[in-house]
Amino acid sequence: MRVLGVDPGLTRCGVGVVEGRPGRPGDLVFVGVVQTDPGLELSQRLLHLDRELTRLIADHRPEQVAVERVFSQHNVRTVMGTAQAGAVALLAAARAGLPVAMYTPSEVKAAVTGSGQAGKEQVTAMVTRLLRLTERPKPADAADALALAICHTWRGAVKNKLAEAAAAAKKGSYR
Amino acid sequence: MRVLGVDPGLTRCGVGVVEGRPGRPGDLVFVGVVQTDPGLELSQRLLHLDRELTRLIADHRPEQVAVERVFSQHNVRTVMGTAQAGAVALLAAARAGLPVAMYTPSEVKAAVTGSGQAGKEQVTAMVTRLLRLTERPKPADAADALALAICHTWRGAVKNKLAEAAAAAKKGSYR
Questions:
Q1: Closest CA of chain B from A170, distance in Å
Q2: CATH 3.30.420.10, domain B2-173, yes or no
Q3: Scanning A27, A48, B82, B92, which has the fewest C-beta atoms within 10 Å of its C-beta?
Q4: Of which family is this protein a member (chains A, B) (predicted)?
């Protein structure tokens, strides 16, 4: 399963594509950061982000998309930009007909490091190890996007199995 | 000048198109509300909103778009949805190549009622009078979208004149 992970941000939006299977290490397909100029009008920044994400989806053909769920506890001004960039990512995925999952930062950390409290350094170290990279992905936004994609290949698969089991059980009960 | 006003919201997004000129009353072209089902996934709600706004722009051909600037003081959960819906509106405008202006709620209230502290009731009453409508636009989101459009026909024009004057002065200084 090929997954695009997006760590939304208006100034820097982390993007990472991973080809993976549950319980397997997974392979890096693409990693990068989409940047928009803070000097541009907001609508133009969102347009630039939309075009880059749409092109990335066309180029790397992910089957599913995982986006970080924005949290309201942080600095409110930052949250607004993150929510707007996240909306563009969700929309680009939906326009391409791709299913989208959202994960909180602690769900992602727990999936790749075993601890929801892990620091950025630890997440980057595990992403580097899990994908057998020769150097650490930079900046942190790019590593986070890869962590999201890895998290989804593992957790999404579990969710799918649970859904299948539930569907099978339901079907059985009608026999 | 034909202006689309958007009062962004995820559940209800007010939209209003006004044909107007600075200092003139202006004419109603279209008013409505785009609703999205809270039971749908977020990405699907944003997709629905994007499609409706894109269609509305194609149908009514506004030359400019005015979107309410989202404020962080409100309930943080609501603000997230408003920021996401606002991002979709800004993006739809930018994709159509239309210039976008943003106004705070108090700028809009001041433009149509003379007071930045005016209540919703008063804004609706003024919109009804200014556009010579036989009945009040409902719900409040629709009236707010029309108020945004009226605000922009007036204030945007002043901004344009100032910009023209500044450009002319600058040009003059180089002669």
A1: 22
A2: yes
A3: A27
A4: Belongs to the RuvC family.
